[in-house]
Amino acid sequence: MRYWISLIIVMLFSSCNERNISTLKHEKVKFKDLPIEIVKCIKNPNDFQEERNNMLIELPKSKNVDYTVENVKTWIGPWVSYVKLIDIKNNTSYKIDRGVPDPYIIFEDKLYVPDRYNIFTVVDDLNSLEFTRYELK
Predict the structure, then answer these.
(1) Is residue 103 one of the residues assigned to a domain?
(2) pLDDT digits over 53-68, tens only?
C-alpha cells in the first residue's frame, strides 16, 4: 500500500511543471500569415531534414538547442500516451496529446502545429495549410 501511495505522490510532483498545450493561449494562423522563416522551412524541407526526423524544428537554426521532444509511453504496452515538449532553459514541459500532427515548429517562443500530418510530402497547395500558434511564454 505504501508503494502505491508513494508512486502517486511522485507522479503528482513530477508533473507539476507540465502544462497541456490546449490550456495555453492559442490562435489559428493561415499559411500566408506565417512568419517568413517558417514559410521558408516548409517550402525547402530538404534544408531541415535532420530536424524533420525528430518531429521538432526550432527556428532560426542554431547550434543551441532550447527545446526537445520525448514520447511518453503508456503504462501498459508499447504505445505512446502523449508527447512531451521540454523547454530545456526553463525546465518546463508541455504535454501534446496523442493524435496532434507534427512537425512541431518553434519560432520566437511560439509553437506552431499544422492542421494535418505529412505536410512535407502530401500537401500540394501550401496555402491550404492552417497552423495553431501556441504562446509558450
Answers:
(1) yes
(2) 678 999 988 778 899 9
